[in-house]
Amino acid sequence: MNEKKAERAENIKKGIYILPNLFTTGSMFAGFYSMVASLNGNFDVAALWIFASAVFDGLDGKVARLTGTTSKFGVEYDSLADLVSFGVTPGLMMYAWALKPFGRLGWLAAFLFVVCGALRLARFNVQVNTVESKRFVGLPIPAAASMVAATVLLFHHFGWPSTYKRLAILVLIYLLAFLMVSGFRYYSFKDPALIKRQPFGFLLLAVVLLIVVAAEPAAMTFGIMLAYVVSGPLGFVVGWPRRRRLEKAVHKGHGAAAGR
């Protein structure tokens, strides 16, 4: 135990990798500025900065892997930054934007989102070496925060009444909190095949998607995030018959082996 502590201390003394941790710092800066915007009542700006934070968060890991600069320090720093940017920041934004009239129930609901995000990050750190890299177990906290930001932008764009806003965000908080700590699996977009050669039709589809998003960014961003959020439960329902067949086959196999 003492040798491991000494090794960690020695690694920190040798220095840390600057480039990936700068992206992580950029993610936390964007999250913090989003909180500042929320306190000033600029919720549409706050939502945009959450998306900016998500972009930085997506880049830090990729930069670390491409440059061979992954480290235990970077992993821990990234988790702390994620809790600030995608847990505390959207929780504060939701409370100030829609939940404040509910009083204690409002800030408790926002806290539920934060604590479930923290639990999701802790579980990810524990399971990072034991689960499939192409799938996340539970809704990733950046996706949950981005869903909240997309909802804010949608309501701001269409100018819907405050009553609908409060009801929608209350339901959304409980849904996202549950999905973050659930066992539903979500695609991680870490498949190396994504950056390899693809059919021409994929490029055409990507261009069309960009045009549609540019034409109606608020609605399309909300639609894309909603599709990702429901993909976990939908995949579970669609794959249920196959899992049942596999379970029955395993039980039959065990029964046959026991009969021998």
From TrEMBL:
Its EC number is 2.7.8.8. It comes from the Bacteria. One of its GO terms (biological process) is phospholipid biosynthetic process. It catalyses: a CDP-1,2-diacyl-sn-glycerol + L-serine = a 1,2-diacyl-sn-glycero-3-phospho-L-serine + CMP + H(+). The keyword Hydrolase does not apply. Gene3D superfamilies: 1.20.120.1760. Its main location: membrane. It is found in: Endomembrane system. GO terms for cellular component: endomembrane system; membrane. The chain crosses the membrane at residues 16-36, 105-124, 136-155, 167-187, 199-215, 221-240. It is an enzyme of class 2 (transferase). GO terms for molecular function: CDP-diacylglycerol-serine O-phosphatidyltransferase activity. It is a multi-pass membrane protein. Keywords: Lipid biosynthesis, Lipid metabolism, Membrane, Phospholipid biosynthesis, Phospholipid metabolism, Transferase, Transmembrane, Transmembrane helix. NCBIfam families: pssA. Belongs to the CDP-alcohol phosphatidyltransferase class-I family. This is CDP-diacylglycerol--serine O-phosphatidyltransferase.
